[in-house]
Amino acid sequence: MKVRIGAGATEEEAQAVAAALAEHVADEVEVYLGEADEPAATHAAPEPSASDEPEERELGPTEREQRLREEIADVLEGGPEKYKARLSEQDKLFVRDRLDLWFGDEDGDGAGDLLFEDGKFANFDSWHPNSPDVDEADPDTRLPADGLITGAADFEGRDVHFMANDFTVKAGSMAERGVEKFLRMQQRALKTGQPVLYLMDSSGGRIDEQSGFFANREGIGKYYFNHSRLSGRVPQICVLYGPCIAGAAYTPVFADFTVMVEGMSAMAIASPRMVKMVTGEEIEMQELGGSEVHARQSGSADLVARDEEHARELVSDLIQYLPDNSDEQPPSQPAKPPAKPTAGIDGLIPESPNRAYDMHDLVERVVDGDSFFELKPEYGKEILTGYARMDGRTVGIVANQPAERAGAIFPDAAEKAAEFVWKSDAYNIPLLYLCDTPGFMAGSQVEEDAILEKGKKMIYATSEATVPKQSVVVRKAYGAGIYAMTGPAYDPEATIALPSGEIGIMGPEAAINAVYANKLNDIDDPEERKQREQELREEYREDIDVHRMASETVIDEIVPPSKLRTELSNRFAFYEDVEKDRPSKKHGTIL
Fold first, then answer.
1. pLDDT tens across 363-379, in order?
2. Rounded to an integer, what distance in angstroms lies between the CA atom of residue 491 and that of residue 471?
3. 488-524 as b/e, with b when 16 or more CB fall inside 10 Å?
């Protein structure tokens, strides 16, 4: 800043003016006398002192924030205390503790983290003590989060959406605000392409509030519309923690994978009380729809857990085989040698096609050690289904089980295999079929149980699958069994066989009986008849032997059993990126 003062001022006066102005304007000042070209005095701007800085006001949570925190803490307490007290009697965790089990990271291993929750304040005005309409004397007016928790979490390094019922709030029942949260969670999963976890413990819809959510366009019925849209897009995994009745029971059966907890879980279209009212039948909940029923008889449960911790472990294992969505490939792991030596494969398979052995032993000699994760092990036991790894790659396995009714395909087994193949194909998981079956079972009982209908579904799923497929004729491949097990006509990347393999319309005994029964009966001498029957059987076995099939290039190769794992690994690696197209159409008509 430049200032001119009268020419008669002294230098001391000029210096005083410069100092005063510099202090006032906080800038350098030059003072000139009269018309002089050079300043008589210059004064620099003063250095700011600590005391000159504006005081920093100390900020912290206000009373407003503290009040909000108290409200959130109240929500996190869940429903009435009397209902929380009953959970321990049922060996169940309070839902907030359950979420800690699933998504907490107390041990710091990175196995989980609850990222955020949506809708804590759902229905807040209807139950919070500050509301004038709330009767604090009635604990059942507490409806924190409207009994349903939704949000997103890190689970085993994977981002997932989740929902969880709070059983302390009206038995986990569903009403308008909770339904809206559920629907938003599903719709967001469609956008993000991330898996969904349903942690179910619900008695169904609140009948006394049904006008707000039951038949609405955006009501509870939309759950299953969204389930259908999510199906095959992202993995949906459901764990049941209690009796899920009526509408609540549909979420587990719409999910891709359902886990029940032994002695705790149940699901049914109606409660025992309603069943008695409608049919007169008196039945307990576990007998009506417990884990035993759905794991062994209906096939609605994929896995049964011993307790809550085990349920989490099962889902933790399962999700390691699944991609986030249908646009991605399944995850891989470092390769491991098989649990049992491949050199023992040929000795495992009996010479006689009718002798039993356990297909698990063969699977363990082909896949990476300890990687076979079986699904529905107690249902349709004539077929094994499950995921495994081969040289680190995820594969789905469909294998006949000769240890169960000779490996014949019964209706339940066909349905189990069809659903597994369909599911695996949706999530880009290659399929390995291990064939050792006399074919589809015959008889009046299986006809009543829809063997044709369910067998059709298995063949349809195999036909429609566009993932890489390989079929191994381990021993018997009789009748339509070779069709269902993706034989040469079903567009596999390879049909290979072990030297024990046989492919034919039926087995030797049945064939001889069908074709030569009358001629054999005409032979009076029992010894001669027996000898002729043996000759015919050997001739027939030569006709169906895999060497003839390989000679006629019906199959691609016969491989030494000890080389089976290497052969399959090489082929899966080679065909990893194979592309197949279905005919242009809206969709098939076979379900």
1. 999 999 999 999 999 99
2. 10
3. bebebbbbbbbebbbbbebbbebbbeeebeeebeeee
